[in-house]
Amino acid sequence: MAKTIRTGPEFEAAFPFKGRVLEAILCPDCEEEGYLRLRIARDPGKGWSYDPKDGSTFLEVYGLDPRGAYAKVRAGEWAEGRIVCFGHMKRVRARRVGIVGGVLQEGTRLHGEVHLEDAVHIDFGMFEARLAFEDEGHRAKVLKEAKFRDGTFVATDVGVDIELKRWGPKEQVLRR
Known about the structure:
mainly beta, about 50% strand
């Protein structure tokens, strides 16, 4: 098993989702936060629906709910919101972009590809992270230290937060 990635450039990215709530759990350690487990379409460009019998059409997401919606939402309902992913990145030898496994949760290894244009974009498949820098000198220094070039593959052990905007029956959530 690979070592946990704790150094390197940091990123934070968010992407919208609509999917089904599988679990809503109170944190057993602190009893002040909660966790949500969702099932979302793997390719939202084809629509928000998925086939529960075909694992290639969906992705399960398990993350911390910092806003307290876990106490109100029920398993089986559909929800809309955004998933926030964050972490550190390091250069790796990889050949494809995407998630290693079928569950996106705290510590999941993601592979992404670096694109250097006007801004630095990292394509992780499900979402894209954009890195911000103070100035051009700082950008050059960070990219040199991390050995990031256009087309370089990076890995991260992602952290996941889930922010719900609304929830309810499938027809109601997918209508908007």
